[in-house]
Write a structure and sequence with these properties.
Structural class: alpha/beta
Protein name: AMP-binding protein
Domain AMP-dependent synthetase/ligase: 17-384
Radius of gyration: 23 Å
Largest sheet: 14 strands, mixed
Shape: globular
Helix content: 25-40%
Pfam families: AMP-binding
Low-confidence stretches: none
């Protein structure tokens, strides 16, 4: 798309903090946790300090013979140093492969085989915990960010090695590999280039620049291995915003931090915002200065949007919802205000970004796609990944020239607005949109913190519900809430922490259905 291509020299992750520090040397990043690779840095660091830290660890990696084009898998305990290590790997022309701390050891081993003898950056806790012993054999060399383990090299032992200059790779060279959510089995490894990342950065950067002033802090609670982190982070630091990085989304410490450093813009997962509904009742007003809330990962419920907007005291506060995917970045978007209320149509995900992204809906049966007969959603963006590592045939199945099949069902209105009804794999016969029903149940039952509708053994829709503080579901209120909705089985109540989740806290619906029906998970 032409606006994504003009002057696109690639994202240049390896020198990102150098360039940001050159523009805003005293600007800072606030953390809610200590860095495993530099605990002495504390929880507030300048961009200059972080640029130096990235340079240092890039040099340590070079000292163990990591070279341009090498793959370096980062799979360690959760923390922002995952993102900093990704930048360090890219700084010497190598390719960071980021694997979520939430992945089980068997899956990590499968992905290591797919990469093919990469360097592995991990820690003692992972090696003694979830990782199988074979990961040492599957890796060219294993490097530790903390602790000790036989047959590995602690990065701390390499302190003081000579610094090496940054290496800038061509914009079409792979710059980062992330993995898909794995909601349908083993995750795929998505290969991003510097050019594709810069292309998906642009529509988001345009929105942020217009939304809040440069001096306003931006708070980010995003998986450190997700591609979204590597556009959210550059937007914040290059535009001069103080950056608040959150590892945890527990409402109480988040509120404490936001009272100390009030954000003007917050980017987070939908389920994180759901947890933060309670912050609207905090008398200290931790969300009072927010001008924009933003989420791009999954469907977000109207009730949550309305509660968060009520918590802000800023005139013209908005909630920005973007529709996209790890493989292509943001594609369409819209904003909500308090005027939209708590029962707006959450299935409307907005319009494409002019000159940057495109959307079409392809018929499944020869008839025009409509609400009653949704079609396959396909999108176009220069932010699209170039392949799935080791599985290009799977990439080809979703690509149709410049178009990319999202795996979603929906339709477009006569005005061009895109409506998302369901994932293809989640469609339940007789249910027009499980997401729409879930939206309605959230609005009608304030005590719900999650509701997922999955097919039972006989295909009957089964609502799996979680309540705030795990209180028993009010059956009378439930019967009132489902009035007028399609027939469903009786609700099944689970604890939220027992639901299978991805790295971005999305619920793995297929796995949940298998668990509910007593079936073994897919591999």
């Amino acid at each position: 798309m032409f606006l994504q291509r003009i002057g696109n020299k690639g994202i240049r992750l390896g020198t990102l903090f150098d360039r940001a520090a050159a523009r805003h040397p005293a600007n800072f990043v606030v953390l809610d946790h200590d860095l495993d690779i530099a605990p002495e840095l504390g929880r507030r660091a300048t961009l200059t300090e972080l640029a130096g830290l990235i340079d240092d660890f890039a040099s340590r990696l070079w000292a163990v013979r990591v070279r341009p084009g090498d793959h370096v898998v980062v799979h360690k305990s959760d923390g922002f140093d995952i993102s900093l290590l990704a930048c360090a790997v890219a700084r010497i022309g190598a390719i960071p492969v980021l694997l979520s701390p939430k992945l089980d050891g068997e899956t990590v081993a499968v992905l290591l085989r797919r990469v093919g003898q990469p360097f592995l950056v991990t820690d003692q806790a992972k090696l003694e915990g979830s990782l199988p012993a074979e990961v040492l054999e599957l890796s060219r060399q294993t490097l530790l960010t903390s602790g000790e383990y036989p047959g590995t090299t602690p990065l701390a032992d390499l302190a003081g090695v000579p610094r090496v200059p940054a290496i800038t790779m061509p914009p079409d060279h792979p710059t980062l590999i992330t993995h898909t959510s794995g909601t349908t089995g083993i995750p795929k490894l998505a290969v991003h280039t510097g050019r594709s990342f810069q292309a998906r950065y642009r529509p988001q950067a345009t929105v942020v620049a217009a939304a809040v002033g440069r001096s306003e802090p931006i708070a980010v609670h995003v998986s450190f291995v997700h591609s979204r982190m590597y556009t959210a982070m550059p937007i914040s630091i290059l535009q001069g915003h103080p950056l608040i990085i959150l590892r945890d989304d527990d409402p109480e410490p988040v509120a404490d931090l936001f009272v100390q450093v009030p954000p003007g813009f917050i980017e987070a997962h939908p389920n994180t915002f759901l947890r933060w509904e309670v912050l609207a009742d905090d008398p200290r007003g931790p969300l009072a200065q927010v001008k924009y809330f933003s989420s791009t990962f999954d469907a977000i419920h109207p009730r949550t949007v309305n509660r968060l907007l009520q918590a802000s005291r800023r005139k013209g506060c908005r909630f920005a919802q973007a529709y996209g995917q790890s493989e292509v970045g943001p594609i369409a978007g819209r904003t909500y205000s308090l005027k939209d209320g708590a029962d707006f149509n959450g299935r409307c995900v907005g319009m494409p970004f002019p000159g940057m992204t495109g959307v079409r809906v392809v018929s499944r049966d020869g008839r025009p796609p409509t609400r009653e007969n949704p079609g396959f959603i396909e999108v176009k963006s220069d932010g699209r990944i170039v392949t799935y590592l080791g599985e290009h045939h799977r990439w080809e199945k979703q690509a149709d020239g410049a178009w990319w099949r999202m795996g979603d069902l929906g339709y477009r209105t006569k005005w061009g607005c895109l409506h998302l009804l369901d994932r293809e794999v989640d469609e339940i016969p007789g249910i027009q949109s499980t997401l729409e029903i879930e939206d309605k149940l959230f609005t009608r039952l304030p005590e719900l913190v999650e509701v997922i509708i999955v097919p039972g053994k006989d295909g009957t829709p089964v609502p799996v519900v979680c309540t705030r503080d795990n209180k028993p579901l009010d059956q009378v209120a439930w019967q009132s809430a489902v009035a007028g909705l399609p027939p469903m089985a009786d609700p099944v109540q689970w604890r939220l922490e027992d639901l299978p989740q991805t790295a971005t806290t999305k619920i793995k619906r297929l796995e949940l259905a298998r668990l509910l029906n007593g079936q073994a998970p897919a591999r």
